[in-house]
Fold this protein.
Amino acid sequence: MKCEIGKLKSQFLLICTVMFLLSVPTNCQKSLLDVYTQKPTVNALSLSESGDAVIAGLFPAHNSYDTNSRECKDIDEYGLHLVTAMVFAIINVNNDPKLLPEITLGYDIRDTCYNSLQTSRQTMELLLHLLPFAEGTYDGYYCYNIALHDFGMTESFYSPFLGVIGPTMTNAAKATASMLGNFDVIDVSPSAIAFSEAEDLLFNLYSTQPAFQHHLLFISYIIKYFSMTRICLIAIEPQEINYKTEVLRTNLQDSGVCIAQEFTISGDHIDLQIVNTVQKLKINDNIQVIVLLSPAVQGVAFMREAEKQNLTGRTWIGSGEWVHSLDLYQINKEVIGGLLAVSTESSQVGVYDHYFESYISGKMPNPHLDALWEKLYGCIPSQEECSGHLGHYAETGGINSTCTVYQRDFYQNALYVLDAVYAMAHALHRTLNCTEESCNLIETYNHTLYKENFKHIRFTNLADQQVKFTHNEVLHRIILENLQYDDGCLHYVKVAMWNPNLEETEIMDYDFRWRNGQSITIPQEVYETSCAVGERKHSLDRQSCYYVCLKCGPGLVSNGSTSQCFKCSQGFMANQNRSDCEPIATTVLNWRDPVSIVILSFILLSLLLLVFILIVYIRYENTPIVKASNKVMSYLQLFSVILLFFLAASYQFEISTSLCWLQYTMTGTAFPLCNACLLAKTKHVADVFSASSNIRRVRNRSKGQWYKSLIQILFVFSITAIAMIVWLIFGIIDPPQAIYDYRYENQVYVRCTTRLHLGLGIVIGYTLILATICTILAWKTRKLPDNFNEARYVFICSFSILVIVALSVPGYYSTVGLVQSAFASIAVITFGLATLLLLFVPKVYTILFRPDLNTREAILRSIQEFSFNADTRIISKSNQTSRRTSFSSVNSEVPLRHQQLSVSHDAATNTSHLHPNRSINETKEILVSSDQPNHQAPAARLIQVVNVEGENLSSVA
């Protein structure tokens, strides 16, 4: 047996699987058996001629196939023209002395009968007949060659198999190219529809005309060009055809063209489906434009049914073989007139036309074509009994006997068969290094080199056109022909051209005729194509072209031509009639706004109050209360309040990136500075009146006032520097910027923001921590002497600041625009005023209106009273825990202690009075040297601390 037959079996089973996936009914087991038992197909055309190299052809000489009887029926004149064109081309190449000199081409043409199964069978027969399969044994997996000389056999030479031309059906082309590709055989299709299905899948499939998708794209362009907004799409797809209508559908829908009705006629009972479809079109007379994609027989049948049911007044756009059928001339012009036919441009080939006409007339006999006619008609054209079959090929009369058209005008695909033959011939010419006189021996043929030469072939065809393959297809121009009616005759007029290679379109607008082939009025819709502006189309049923108009909702717009209302993009809002979007005016802060004027006026009054306090402090800086308030810390705190007031004022001006930087920087400085000053003063007051700290201060020699102030200043600046460094780092990493805020409908604001929101968040959290610590320390010192004010008001101030910061942050981020800026200003002003009113105003009041309290004696008296209360608590606690002390001794302790405290105070006073030149340190020595019991020490210790701190008492803060 032949070794490669096993491989061929597997390939055939693969093809059967492909056809199964394509829903092609196939009995693979039976078909495979038929191939190898060589059961002939009844009436199937087979035409062959030997040569040095062979080209195969697969054409539909018949257009139907009976799978039960395996019989081909109904001669296909279109397929016979293709067969004739291939035979003519090969004869013409063999007669050309400059193309393949001394090399003769042969052919092997098979009948596909317009059936995929028959096509696959004929393809396998061609492979078995033309490929040089090796002799050997096959074990199911591998082929083992047999040495021919061992059996006295000689190796025979097979003519090179150049390739296959055809088939012309979609599904069959894909299956055939797949099978041929496994054997490195080139497949060239002369049909656009056959190439469109597999163009992106198979490397060995070529086409001598553009893919059918280009036809569909040109149809969509024409529909959009003439503003045809509502169409009907009909695709007649027999078993072997697939028009890929999704390409057309997608393009039309993307362009806003509505497909009001769509019909796909396929499967069994196509004739009945055609009748039903025409009836539906007859009932729905709103659709003026109908697109029909169909093969020749079914397309003509559809138009005849339309004529039968008097479907007139429509504009037809057609593509496929049916638009070049002579039978269209027999249809009433009121039905078919104005047809727009889309096809690939095909020029007349004079030499072929002359040859064919000479053969039909009997003037030029051809033994090859005679064999063809004998098989099909049982006669040859030169015989008189064959005259009844010549009408299909010579000329045809229309409804009016004066109209004459020739069959050659409608079978122009013959040119693409000629191009396929000549492409293979030129590729072989180059492979054999041929000159105009000779070629290398055919035995030097290299198939790999031949395939490469074929892919890059370029030549001028018989119609004087340049032929070259671009992505495996020849990009001829796509033309639009208009079936017009003049002088009682229907005839085609070329009205548009499109070059898919250059994307150039040429349209002759004034040459169009519509409807009956005479009207120059472009078909218009029965209903309006759009709603009023601000309205949308609402479909009442599945046919989306029939609609009612509904008004768009608030904030939505529509131009009335779509079924949806659209929301305006950010920064835009719907205009009054909702027809278009208009820019939203940005809400910009203006200090001239009444609210801003009120806030700025309040800030100015607050600044005046601060200046007044500062003047009072400077005027009375040597008084005990000012000294006891720690002047340095007070001035730093007043400076932080000034920053706060300026920060509050900045929120009332138009936002910019520079202003954002200023606000964020001042926020990171003013708040921590104010809280740091408050924390330093609170901590120092607590330390002064702490018993353990006081003893340590009395025993150690006090340091200078400048040193203690420096320590406090460094403490404040250290706490403030932490926040500033954090803000500086995040300001570099994530700088603040002014952006437009589109979060609110029909309003646009400008706000300061950062991407990460970490820098400001850490600073605010840090401020909250400082305020919490101040509040805790102030609570512990809330019962210190009243004259110092920090003892009571520091707690209230710290707690107020904590509440203000905690409430202002969520309030700020939950508002926007003018409300947000007003809220921020009020919050910052409140922060500053809380500091002024609770810490400084009480002191100013005492200084100005209670000068009797602004004396050293009043301060000492306040300390003594605080100390007496503290000692009473200490003694009471000591007596409760001591079992050795009687109740009476406890009662006598209080007046005794009071006496001692008074004596101590009088002693200090008298000493100072008697010795006016004695220093405070000398007074301290007197108090310290007094020999008092241990339980009497606290009062004396507090007095000592006050004196130790210096004459200005500034350490008590």
